[in-house]
Protein 1
Amino acid sequence: MFESIPKVPPDPIFSLVDRFRADPNPDKINLTVGVYQNEQSQTPVMRCVKQAEERLLEQENTKNYLGIGGLEAFDRATAALLLGETQAFENNCYTCIQTPGGTGALRIAAEYLDKLRPSAKLWIGLPTWANHMNIFSQANVQISHYDYLDKSKTALNFESLVEALDESTEGDAFLFHTCCHNPSGFDLAVDQWEIIFGFVRERNLLPIFDCAYQGFRESLETDVFPLRRMAELGSEFLICSSNSKNFGLYAERVGALTGVCKDAAAADKLGAYLKSLIRAIYSNPPKHGAGIVATVLDDPGLRESWHAELEEVRNRIGSMRRLLVDKLSQQLGDQFNFMLQQNGMFSFTGLTPAEVDQLREEHSIYMLRSGRVNVAGVNQDNVDRLC
Ligand code: LMR
């Protein structure tokens, strides 16, 4: 029976993590999965998270189910973090539902498209996070693509996005990276977002924002500019957010699906529909990670220490990016200066799959075959060997 199962290719990100772990070379360098590493190549638990966990352990008196939509305090705090003081938030024109990670949110958004917009296309700029294609195609969503980057892969190709917007039809959906584009690190500029929003309103398009790196580009507030601007303009859209990175809660699977709607009644209807999808997939989400996030966001002291820790993370990644480009330019001139225009954890290096394979096989330097590196894997000890 099972012998007829087709052979599937290994996951392009997690299979490399396994290979890195199995490599006995003591000087190996891990620039693969999007997980923060400190100067010692470790991924520590944030101090505010440890403190919140201590409180939770002390105060918890039941393991009863959460509702289908998750922990209410988490949902409200997440919507506030994403939407700020916009009218949409103040007037409850949103629904926010806790999901198992950002992936869980994306999968529910995909189910929504499949069930309620079966003739709509979803437009995705390539390259994108490898799992985006899996998630939406496994939910039978029709996908169309455009080129997010130019041929050199070292700059945006905004014309291609505008052509896709122009070709789209009423009701189509567009997947956008809110900030810190994965895998390239190249983000859209404010004036480019304004052009996109013009099309969204004119064609009644549905933007789906993947928001996995709030706080990694510049600040918690400015990183979500596209979401808040969209909300101000009164458009309807979905946000798939993750707390894996900005709280370092990778293994706890904490995320949310937020729908911003024209009014509170529409938001209630959307929320009820999304919950009906969730009930049939995983019933209701796990509690621990969402409890941590809600505890930190609701306590001014813990929240302040979270801001400070997130700033440390952001600053370290920024300084490793500058160090890397600096060292590369000492040996190779300014050909890698484009990396200074990229944001967040990732950088597209422009290396080919063959070059990436060679680095891995001959030097134990691990990065994605697309040429993506996790800049957080660079440190003072390994940067010279890497360059
Ligand atoms: C990545 O892109 O490396 C991360 O988002 C981890 C993942 O799930 O792929």
Note: The first strand starts at residue 29 and ends at 30.
Protein 2
Amino acid sequence: MKLYIDVEKKLGEFSLQVKADVSGERTGIFGESGSGKSTLVHLISGLMQPDKGEIVLDETCLFSSRKKINLAPEERRIAIVFQQAMLFPHMSVKKNLFYGYKRCHSENRRIKAETLIDLLKLQPLLQRGVKNLSGGEKQRVALGRAILANPRLLLMDEPLSALDDRLRFQIIPYLRSVSEEFRIPYLFISHSLTEMQLMTDHILAIKNGRCMEETTPEQLARNWMAQSPKGYLNLLRLADPVKQNGLFAYRWGKNTLLVSGGDATGESLFELSSREIILFKKHPEAISARNLLDCTVTEMFESDGRIGIVLSVNGEKLVAEIVRSAAEELHITIHSTLFAAIKASSFRMLA
Ligand code: ADP
Ligand code: MG
């Protein structure tokens, strides 16, 4: 997917002025509330018209003030999933799902409804009305409806913001697998760095209606480390838990981690703040932290006066955060070998 945007739009006091050339299948638009993300979504989808400029998706010009082109939303074949599912209240789940499908030209129909219903686990819901669905179920139906419209591009405008944490992270694999299975590129809009890390490969960051930078989720998380209340959030996929003295022993690549809150089965996603990791130059004698890992420094970066230490732990990556004086006192450099201590209670299970 290639999207060229060069637009200006004034809304009351707010002015949006964005020029960007984005490509890739999983792109994020990141910015705090009020920065103009939804305005951009409206302009791309055709729900709102720019004051001037140009929008080109792949080879198709969607809007050009100079050439007087302004394709109607349905001609653009761009589907949107909003924060609130906005399902049709008087229709069943099935009718909602097939709404866009029926309006799609037969030559553009390439999504197999059965596969989609399977992927999103919607079969048991098909005959139900939409009023009593849970928030997560509603979002799955909204996503299914968007995909069944056979779009060329899917816009997701904070689709997880209205859900509680647990559900948010349960839905993310659905979002990813649907776009992968049907090869539908997406723009994922959010103000959550963790969602960006899980959903996107690169990011357009906007602030006050202006484009700040094109970056990667990893770079963005590093830049924000010092300012974020929880530092850099390491996202770890831990597998095969075994109960051990009231804790769970999880496999993390070739390592074992002891975690206090867990789940008895399978693979789970955990977050661990860069601030919860304590580094030692020498092996400490007796410590209460249940995890002591041998690691090697592979990279160091700075974020507003804090130092991020990128560690390799038997091939797995971990980012720890220390103040500059600590880095100097411990003479930490690239290739330094260190011990990282992490309490079993420092891991937070996301899904
Ligand atoms: P985001 O999605 O990043 O939170 P929005 O694109 O919704 O931001 O809004 C950007 C700014 O534009 C906000 O300050 C908002 O109040 C303002 N805005 C949005 N729509 C209108 C409108 N129709 N009239 C006036 N101001 C608007
Ligand atoms: Mg918004």
Note: The chain is about 25% helix and 40% strand.
